[in-house]
Amino acid sequence: MGEKCYCRTRRSDLPLPMRCVDFQNAIERRREHTARAVSMGDIRSFFGGGGGAPKKPSADAAAAAKPSSPPAAKKSAPAKPSDDATPMDLTGDDDVVDLTATATKTSTTPKASPAPAKRKLPEATTDADANAPAKTTTPKKPKTTTPKSTPKKPKTTASASKSKKAPGEKKPIPAPPGYPKREDELKFSVIDVSKPWGFGGGTEMAGPPNKGRKPAPRGPDGCLEGCTFVVSGVLDSLERDEAEDFIKRHGGKVTSAVSGKTTYLLVGMDCGKSKYAKAKSVGTPLMDEDGLFAMVEALAEEAAKNPVKTEVEMKPADGVEAKPEIVPAAAAKKPAPSAAAAAAAAPSQAAAAAAGAASRPKKAEDTPLWVNKYKPSQPAQLIGNGKNIADLRKFLQTWDALHGKDGTAKDMKGKDKPMKAVLISGPPGIGKSSAASIISKQLGFEVTEVNASDTRGKSSNDIRDGVGGKSSNAVREMVTNKAMSFFGGPPKKTVLIMDEVDGMSGGDRGGVMELINCIKISKIPIICICNDKYNQKLKSLQNYVLDMPFSRPTKGQIVKRMLLIAEQEGIQMNEAAMEALIETTNNDIRLIINQLQMRRLTKQSFAYDDIKSLAKKDIDMGPFTAVDKLCAPDANRLTVTERLNLVFQDSDIIPLFIQENYVQYRPYAAKNDVERLQLLSAAATSISEGDVMNKSIRAKQNWGLMPYANIVSSVMPASTMRGSREVFGLHPGERNFNRFPSWLGKNSTHGKNKRLLQEVHSHAMTSEGFKADAASLREYYLPLLKLLTTRPMKSAALGGKEKEGIPEAMATMDAYCLTRQDWESIQDVTKLKGNGPLFADAALGIPTAVKSAFTRECNDKGRVVHSGILTQEAKRGRKRGAAAVADDDDEEEGDGGSDGEGEGEDGLPKKPKISAKRLAAIGFVAKDDGKKKPAAKKKAAPKKKKDAK
Amino acid sequence: MATAASKNSTLPWVEKYRPTKIDEIVGNADAVERLAAMAATGNVPNLIFSGPPGIGKTTSILCLAHTLLGPAYKDAVLELNASDDRGIDVVRNKIKMFAQKKVTLPPGRHKIVLLDEADSMTSAAQQAMRRTMEIYSNTTRFALACNASEKIIEPIQSRCAIVRFTRLSDQEVLERVMKVVEKEEVPYVPDGLEAVVFTADGDMRQALNNLQATHSGFGYVNQENVFKVCDQPHPQVISDMLTHCLRGNVDDAYDRIKFLYAAGFSAMDIIGTVYRVTKNFNSEAMPEFVKLEFIREIGFMHMRVGDGVNSLLQMAGLCAKLCKVVECAKAGILR
What we know:
The complex is a heterodimer.
Chain A: H1 2-13, H2 18-27, H3 32-50, H4 57-79, H5 86-100, H6 154-163, E1 228-232, H7 240-249, E2 253-255, E3 264-267, H8 273-282, E4 286-287, H9 289-305, H10 307-331, H11 335-365, H12 370-373, H13 386-403, E5 421-425, H14 432-442, E6 446-450, H15 463-468, H16 471-480, E7 494-498, H17 511-521, E8 526-530, E9 545-549, H18 555-568, E10 572-573, H19 575-584, H20 589-602, E11 605-606, H21 608-612, H22 623-631, H23 640-648, H24 654-661, E12 665-667, H25 673-700, H26 706-721, E13 723-725, H27 742-766, H28 774-790, H29 795-798, H30 806-815, H31 820-829, H32 848-859, H33 871-880, H34 882-885, H35 897-906, H36 916-921, H37 941-948
Parallel strand pairs in A: 1-2, 1-3, 3-4, 5-8, 5-9, 6-7, 7-8, 10-11
Antiparallel strand pairs in A: 12-13
Helix pairs in contact in A: 1-4, 2-3, 3-4, 4-5, 6-10, 6-11, 10-11, 11-18, 13-14, 16-17, 18-19, 18-20, 23-26, 24-26, 25-26, 27-31, 28-30, 28-31, 30-37
Chain B: H1 2-7, H2 13-16, H3 29-41, E1 47-50, H4 57-69, H5 73-76, E2 77-80, H6 88-100, E3 111-115, H7 123-135, E4 140-146, H8 154-159, E5 161-164, H9 170-184, H10 190-200, H11 204-218, H12 223-230, H13 235-247, H14 250-262, H15 267-279, H16 288-306, H17 312-331
Parallel strand pairs in B: 1-4, 1-5, 2-3, 3-4
Helix pairs in contact in B: 3-4, 6-7, 9-10, 9-11, 10-11, 10-12, 11-12, 13-14, 13-15, 13-17, 14-17, 15-16, 16-17
C-alpha cells in the first residue's frame, strides 16, 4: 500500500523513466493497463505534436485525452479502496473515459472497452448502440442475410462462395445487425507512414489495452467456417495470437495478407497501411474486435435457440445438400477444401457413433498402426512432390535403355551423362520411402531394401564373409546381377533402395565408398534415400547420383487426406483443427497419423484447443529463433525461467548474438531518444558484466555461475532493449534480421594476425639488432617496415625503374631476417579498415612484373634466412644426414632466442658463423620459397645487416 | 511386484510402492487415461514418453507392458536402459533379432521394446533403429522414455506418438506420500509432509526418498527434520528475506540471512537457494526487471563466494544491494 501511494504521486509529477513504470505496473497489477494507456497517450502526443499535421483524428483525441487522464487516474484511485477487484477498476477507467472522450457513454457491460474510447472520434458510438438498426444502412454492408439463418453450414458456405464472385458481396455467414459497421465507427487506426520515424510507431509494440477484460464469447464449433480473416493492428482485448486462436477455434481461417478471398479484415489500433489499402481496393469489409465478438455471440445465440433444428438440419441436410453443392463449389477455387471438410464432418458423427460399436472389436483382431493402414499404395495417393515423383518414374523407366547392355549412356559425356542412381532427400515423414517403393512396384520392379538396421560397411573379398551373409557382399552381388538370369527366362527387373544413407556410421566403415562402387558397377537402378543431403558423409556420393530433394508437402496438400483418415476412423475434426495439427507437427504426415491414432484411443473428436495443448515435435531451435524470441516486443510474456532456457539452447553463441544486435532494437520501454540511450547504456553494462562472469566461468571452471552469466549477458539486455528491430540504413540493402555475431569472424582474423605477427617476430628476433616484444614490433616497427619494403618497388618513387628498388627492399628485409612470406604477413598484419592514404594497401602500387621479380629474387638459392621454427625439419634432416654431420659441432651461432630453443633441445653446441651449405647439409636450412612456412635460415643476415647500415 | 516387495522391508520405498497397474499411477491424468485405453484395446503405437525425472515415465511403460502382456512379459519384452550396451551393434543385432523373433501372444498384442533413457542413445544407434521400427511394426512396438525429447532424432520422433509427462502437482505428491506414511506407520506432523512435498518439487521419487531418509534418520517427520535431511536452507526463510528486501527493510532481511548462516549453512548453499527462490518468486510481487537485477546481484555474490570470500559480511552486502536495487527502482534511477 505504501508503495502504491508512493508510485502514484511519482507518476503524476514526472515523466518516469520506463523501468520505473515497469516496476510500478507490476506492483499494482490491476492498474497496469491504465498506466500503459497513459504512457501510450504520451508517446502519441509527443510525436503527434512534433511530426507535422497528425493525420488521424484519433491521435488528436488521444492527445487531448492525455493531459486529463493521469490526474483522473490519480484522483479516482485514492478515492477508492484500491484493494478491490476488477469491477472497481473498470469504473476507474470509466472515470478516465468520461473525462476525456464521450460523456454519452452508456455501456456498462464488461464487454465494452472504455479505455480505447479515448482514441475514438468523439461522436463514435460504443457497442451498446451497435445493434441499433440505424447503423445497418452503411454503404459497406449489403444487408442480405438475417441472423435467422443457421450458423455455418456447408450450405451457407457454398452459397457464400458462389456469391463471392460478385464483388463487394462477401458475406458467407450472417453478421449480426449493425455489422460490419461503417468504417468511422470502428475502433481502429492506420499507421501513418508519412510520419517521421518515432517511438511508438511500431505495430506490435503495444499490448491490447483491455487485455483480459472482455470475456470472449464461445460460439458453436465451426461457426465461422468458410470465413477468412486477416488480422492487423492491436486489437482491443486480444493479443494477436489469441485472436487467431479465437477465429480458428470457431473454424475460421486466418491468413496473413488481404486478398479477394478474405472475408473480413479484423482491424485494431495501428493496423498496417498496406493491408488497409488492399482491403479498400478489393472491397473487403472491415471489422473490429467487438464486431467479431458480436458476430460469434449472435451465432451462439442462434445455435442455442434452435439446437434441435441445427442438429437435424446438420445431418440430413449435409448428407444430401453437400453433395450437389460440392460439384459447383469444387469448380470454384477456394471453397473446395471447406466443402470437403464439411462433407467429412457430416458422416463423421454417424461414423463416430458406429465406430464405438463397430470398430472396436474389429481393432482387437487386426491392429495395424494407422501409419501402415493408410500407407499409400497407389502413386496417386502420394502427397506432394509431384515433379520429383514424375522424375523418379522417368528415371526408372529409362534406366534400362540408358544403362543396360546396349545402353546409350556410355556414349554420353560430361554433364549430359545420366546418373545411374538417385538420391532422394528430405525431412522425415513426408513419404520418401513410400514414393520410392510405390513407384518401383508400379513399374514392375522387385524392390530390395537395405537400411540403417543392416550393417553396411565395406564388402570384403574374404569368402567367409560372403557366405556368412555380410550384407554388403550380398548387395554387391545383387547389383552385379549375376544370379538373376540363372533360371532362364527374362531376368526380373530389380531395384535397390538404399534407405537412410546418412545413417551410415559407426560400424559402417567405408559404407559410402562401397555404395559408390556399387553404383559404378551396378546393373540395376539404385535409389538412395537420406534426410540431410548436405551431410559431410555424403559429399562424395553427390557426384554419382541424381539429386532429388523432396520438400515438405504444404498444408493444403495434406489437409484433405488427413481429414479423410480422421473421418474413416471416426474422429470429428474440422479443417482449422487439422491445419493446426499439421502446424504443430511441422508437416510431418506420419506424425499426424500417429497423433490421430493416439487421440482416437480416448476421444472421438479433435478440437482446435486440444491441438494447442498437444505435444510438439521437439526440434532444437536455432540461435536465430531464440534471439528473435528473446528480443521480441512481447518477450515479457515469457517468464524469466523460460527466457533463461532459451539462452541455454546455446549459451556460447546467444550472448554473442545479443551483443551483435542489441543496438538495433528500438526499446519498447523508451519514450524518447534520451531514454533510448539510457536503456542502451544499461544493456551495454549488462553485457559487459556478463562478460566478466563468463570469464570467471572459463578461467576458474566455476560452472555454477552459468545461469547468472546467461541472465546477465543475454536475458537482461534483451529485456531492456526488447522492441521492434530496425536498421539505421548505414549499409544499403541491409536486411532487418538479426545478424550472425561478427565477433566470431573478427576473432578468427585476430588469431590469424597474431599468429603471423608471432612468426614475423620470431624471425626478426634472430637478427641481432632487434630486441623487442611482438606488440612493440607491430606498433613501432611494422608501419615503417611496411613502407621501407614496399616504397622502393613502387613506380611513383622510381618512375619505371621499379625493379631497381628490389635490392633496397630486400636489404631492409634481410636486416630483420624477413622472408618473402613475412613480407606478405606484414601487409596483412598492418592492414586497417578505413578510407584515406593511411589505410591504403601499401603493396597496391607495385606492378605485377616487379612483384614476381621480387619473389624470384627472394627465392634465389643464395638467399637464406635464419629461422628457428623448423625443428621438425631439422630433426628429420639430421636423421637422414646423421653420418655426414656427426662430427659437425661447429655449427650454429647463438643468435636469436627462438632459434636457441630449437637448438637447445637438440643439445647442440653453439658457435657463430656457419656456412649455408653446412646448414643445408643437416637439413636445417630450407629455401625461402615464399610460399610455405619459412623454411629458411640465415647465413647472410648479420653480414647483410652491416651492408645495409 | 508390490506384493513381493511388501514382505521385504529393506527395499527402498520408491521400489516398494512403485505402481504396478495403470490406474495406480499418480498424475498426468490425460496421458494415463490414454495408456489405459491402449491397454484395453491392445493397439499401442510406438511411443515416446518425455518429461522430467521422477514423474512416472518408466513406471507407466512397465505398467503398460505388464497389463498388455501379463505372463508373457518375460518373453515378449526387451528392456534396455542406459546401463545396457545400446550401441549401434546392439540395435542391429539384439533389437532386430528380438523384433524378428516369434512369440505366441494373444491376438492384438505385440512384443514391446522398452528403451529407457533413450536420450542417451547415440544418434547412430537411433538411426539404425528407425527402419526396424517400421518394418516389424506388425509384431513389435517400441516405447521410449527420455528426459529431453529433443535428443531423440527427428525421424524417430516422426515415427512415434509423443506423450508428454509434466511434473506432478504438490497435491498429487502429497496424496501418495500420505498413503505411504499410513502403510509404513510413520509418525509425522502435517508440516513435515508439506516440507517433503516442497523439497521434492513435483518429483515423486525424491519425495519418497526424502521421506524414507527422514524416517530412518530421525523416526519422526517434521519440518525441521526434513530440511535437516535434505540439507537445504529453508526456502521460506529466503522468501521472507526477499520480501523484506522488496520492502526495503534491510535489517529484517539481514536477520534472516544471519539466522541461516548461524545455522551452519555454507554461503554457497544459501546463495544457491536465494537464486532458486528469486527465480521462481511470484512475479506479481517482484516485477521482472527487479527480478533480473536481483539475479545479477546474486550472481556477483556467487562469483565472490566462488573466489573464496564467503563471510557473513558478503551476505550482509547482498541484502543491502538488493534493497538498494528496489530503492533505485522506486526512485526511477537507472543503475
